[in-house]
Amino acid sequence: MIRQLIEKIQKTKAPVCVGLDPMLDYIPEHVLKRALDEFGETLEGAAEAIWQYNKEIIDHVYDLIPSVKPQIAMYEQFGIEGLKAYVKTVKYCHEKDLLVIGDAKRGDIGSTSSAYAAAHIGKVKVGSKSLSSFATDFLTINPYLGTDGVKPFVDVCKEEDKGLFVLVKTSNPSSGEFQDRLIDGQPLYEHVAQKVVEWGADSMDGTYSNVGAVVGATYPEMSSVLRKLMPNTYFLVPGYGAQGGTAEDLAPCFNEDGLGAVINSSRGIIAAYKQDKYKKIGAENFGEASRQAVIDMVADINRVL
Ligand SMILES: O=C(O)c1cc(=O)[nH]c(=O)n1[C@@H]1O[C@H](COP(=O)(O)O)[C@@H](O)[C@H]1O
């Protein structure tokens, strides 16, 4: 699967992933009102609003980018109706030939991880049939439980030719609280990085492994160390834009071949119409503002490659 992502990145010249993290606060008034008028102030109304919002954004950006990353929490908050909007969004992105990174940060004891893996990137057996549930191409993984919690994802990844991004060094302000703690003289995130390389060794798909790593844009010195420790691991890099990460901060995430990282921006793209820079495009044309924000992001990243 990583090979497909790389091919799409090379075709679009955009090492970019648009984060589909719809919050009701970001949805333009006219879209929200239409959905709530039809379904009332209900979970269905909210789910319809986020679906319509996503669809408009996808329609405006799909030809520019290789991938999207829907964050499941933004859907899950609306319960089953929200999850239906998640599935609808994943299906629509596939129709538009986009690869979908499901951001669910799963990881538990082995048997539970197996069920998560089946739900998100694998198949679930019902009688004689094997059925897909969420059907994303990649999934984000929390490795806190260790190898037996990660292995079921790696196995499904191999069987189904899917991909993973395992949290190694996250972008948030408290990420150092545990991740930077020294163990045997080395920060914990480096220990995790070594494990990610090990977990991915049997899942090579060309130069890179289908088992990738999440490395936040907000700690560039650490990205640089991690890039050297994990030369054949693809990085999913969140933190650009809304969290303060700049193009210069991203440079160490890439290898000399210009590959090795896919950069996510969620609020910076989907709520672009609210930014001063794009305000004149107008809330009515929020999809157009997102398109312009993607064009600007791609140019900004290519400037440092
Ligand atoms: O796994 C992630 O995607 C992730 C890891 C991380 O270290 N930091 C991080 O922000 N994320 C996700 O990336 C997205 C960032 O959103 P923006 O800050 O709006 O671009 C959210 O969906 C986060 O959940």
TrEMBL record:
Which keywords fit this entry according to its UniProt record?
Decarboxylase, Lyase, Pyrimidine biosynthesis
Q: Give the Enzyme Commission number.
A: 4.1.1.23
Is Lyase set as a keyword in this record? yes
Q: Kind of enzyme, top EC level? A: lyase
**UniProt superkingdom:** Bacteria
Query: Where do the catalytic residues lie?
Result: 105
One of the record's GO molecular function terms: orotidine-5'-phosphate decarboxylase activity
**A single GO BP:** 'de novo' UMP biosynthetic process
Catalytic activity, per the record? orotidine 5'-phosphate + H(+) = UMP + CO2
Record carries keyword Lyase: yes
Q: Give the Orotidine 5'-phosphate decarboxylase domain ranges.
A: 15-281
- Any Pfam family from its record, for instance, is OMPdecase
Pathway named in the protein's UniProt entry: Pyrimidine metabolism; UMP biosynthesis via de novo pathway; UMP from orotate: step 2/2
List the NCBIfam families hit by this protein, alphabetically: pyrF_sub2 (TIGR02127)
Tell me its family.
Belongs to the OMP decarboxylase family. Type 2 subfamily.
Write down what this protein is called.
Orotidine 5'-phosphate decarboxylase
Q: Which organism is it from?
A: Lacrimispora algidixylanolytica
Record gene name? pyrF
